[in-house]
Amino acid sequence: MASEPLVGVLALQGDFADHAAALQAEGLRTVFVRKASDLVGLDAIVLPGGESTTMLKLLDVEGLWEPLGKALRSGVPVLATCAGLILLAANVENPRQRSYGLLPLTVVRNGYGRQYHSGTFALQSEHLPAGTTGTFIRAPRISNVGAECEVLARRDGDAVLVQKGPILAACFHPELQVGHPVGAQFAAMVRAHAGLAAAGAS
Amino acid sequence: MTSKHPLPKIPGFTAEEVVSKIGFCEQLKGGVIMDVINAEQARIAEEAGACAVMALERVPADIRKHGGVARASDPGMIADIQKAVSIPVMAKVRIGHFVEAQMLESMEVDAIDESEVLTPADEQFHVDKRVFKTPFVCGCRDLGEALRRIHEGAAMIRTKGEAGTGNVVEAVRHMRALMSQIRELRGMDTRFLEKKASELRVPVELVAWVAENQKLPVPNFSAGGVATPADAALMMQLGAEAVFVGSGIFKSGNPQQRAKAIVRAVTHFEDPKVLVEVSKGLGEPMVGIDINTMAPNERLAGRGI
């Protein structure tokens, strides 16, 4: 019997431990990614919350920028939250900064304000169970969504959960809320992808 | 699965406080929070990869040198730093000075450090941190101090260490005390936990939570005397989840390089090869003070127990 899929959680800085615990609660195996060799053999990747500027500096110093980019483009499922979403957006504002550009989004860093304005807010979604909320912490605000990107949930009109192919990205932090449906959704994506890969290999 | 889901119920905190206040502190983990005294230093810290800055008028080493009453910083200076960087900005208030805290909250400072580095304003009470929306960090020397601050509403805890000395020995002492007192609670029965709770002057639910989960219910960071990448990694290996560096960076010979080195050291705290690489050619560290030569009244860690 094949073992559970292995998810690499980028662990340069941020709430990587919360992501690992949430993934393990879904029955997935996890490994922390701090250098290029940690990217081998992953079935999925998580880009956690934290400070995107800090992560950008460390991605460069560790020589991880290129190898991680290759892994993110390889078609494995990716979950990105908060700072992770910023790393994937095509355009980043306030201030402008570099990114992988894998999601056709324009995001404004700290677009909902400083920590004082952080909190848990209702989400409007046809995909998530009624009453689902999201915890936004100094969250990025998506100001524009390109055509190829599906919006799965909104907060007062703003897109806050989006998907493009195997990439799922949230402005909020499902990893902080016990049993958040986004965690189960991502786990299902990871299992489906790992199952297909195993079938293809045999 | 044996693993527990993050951020479960915490005695004394509402579910919303758990996710929004403690959740904010979770985002700082694996990072370095740097003391800065102006916008230029704040930009250097951000450029070096700091996950947050602590805005204050004088770093602890200078507070020691100048003496007198150390108070919350000029709001104008804090506002300049808020404008200069995109990472979170924290600032300090005197122990018990809830009006300084109200002022910082109205400025939307991202987190407030109720700090023994400043001159205490109240010898009986700390700030009631539960009435604030802004997360607070407080210092501790042991489990009792940590749990009393958490009971008052602190959303993260740091060791006190002995700030402004460039000497990590006190931070080590405090982290070891904290961790061993947590281990001591493992598997203890209700009567023992009740006794411990009355000894530590906190609700038994809080002690029981720590006994069961074998960690503090809020992030556990380190501060006080960290001067080198190796010091930062030492605190992480002892159990810290992030590191505050006060005087250690901007009182050193080459702040830019040292700041970058400490940021990398905290990420790779278990990798001695990386620590060697970042420690090469760092220039002069801040001049340290031997704790044993200090008069008891020069020590800051005894404030706010």
Explain this structure to me?
With 202 residues, chain A is α/β, with parallel strands linked by helices. Chain A contains five helices and twelve strands. Chain A has helices at 16-25, 52-61, 65-72, 83-88, 181-201; strands at residues 6-10, 29-33, 44-47, 78-81, 89-93, 103-108, 119-122, 133-136, 141-145, 150-155, 158-164, 167-170. The longest helix of chain A is centred in the C-terminal third of the chain and has 21 residues, at 181-201. The model of chain A has no long low-confidence stretch (mean pLDDT 96). Chain B is globular and about 55 Å long. With 305 residues, chain B is α/β, with parallel strands linked by helices. In chain B, 42% of the residues lie in helices and 11% in strands. Chains A and B meet through helix 1 and helix 2 of A and helix 1, helix 2 and helix 12 of B.
| CATH architecture call of chain A | 3-Layer(aba) Sandwich
Strand order of the largest sheet of chain B: 7-6-5-4-3-2-1-8
Structural class of chain B: alpha/beta
Biggest sheet architecture of chain B: 8 strands, parallel
Listing every helix as H and every strand as E from the N terminus to the C terminus, the arrangement of chain A reads EHEEHHEHEEEEEEEEH
Largest interface: A-B, 46 and 45 residues
What would the principal axes of the Cα set say about the shape of chain A? globular
Helical fraction of chain B: 40-55%
Q: How many individual β-strands of chain B?
A: 8
- Give the topology string of chain B: H per helix, E per strand: HEHEHHEHEEHEHHHEHEHHH
